[in-house]
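Per reviewer request, we include the raw input and output of the structure prediction for the construct analysed in the revised manuscript.
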Amino acid sequence: MDLMKGKKGIIFGVSNTHGIAYGIAKQLFEAGADIAFTYANEAMEKRVRPIAEEMNSKFIMECDVTNEEALANVFAKYNEIYGNVDFMVHAVAFANREDLSGEFINTSKDGWNTAMGVSAYSLVAMSRAARPYMKEGGSILALTYLGSEKVVSNYNIMGVAKSALESSARYLATNLGPENIRVNCISAGAIKTLAAKGVSGFDKMLKAAILKAPLKRNVTTEDVGKTALYLLSDLGTGVTGEVIHVDCGCHSVYASNEEMDMLTREI
């Protein structure tokens, strides 16, 4: 399959081989894409560099996504090596651990600003930095989660940040659409990643998702990667401003038969 043959782009947020960003990178690479990678700091480089080398990347660079000068430098350097940007993946999110448990009402202003800055505003900054290098059009993709639409226990400030991310994607899609640049989100279901372990009670979320989902399983990074391939390739040329759920149908069910049976037995 050569859906991405001749296409070049950059992924922000790959950190290990078990994460969603890696699942996306793998699908893009196998479809023929040339991928540039960034890493957050020196410690993360040890994890990301082997992945970049595995995918024959010509570009791997440190980048603090909250630093707009750093973003500008990344894209300028990318341009020297690859030229135009055909696609960009935003797989970046962060919230303080103490804000991912307990009551949302106790979120501090610093915690709010941190989560919003890293998880949502960075998409705006990245898109602005990428824009001059998407002269032939392109596709931008961000990762979100159902906690943006509905309350998920302990997701707290990250749910609010993901709501802001999704709304930002719609506004960006409107701004960039005349330049043939598409902006979409994938709302991935619960997946057992290193990042997800920061959410208190995440193992229970995985079990709850299986009970609710019509497909009766948890989604995989491969599932998400395949949908990303669709959105970032020419198969998705008519799709922008969209949030596509890849969660085995979990978002569509209020209460499954299995959940109702459990409640009946408890009563």
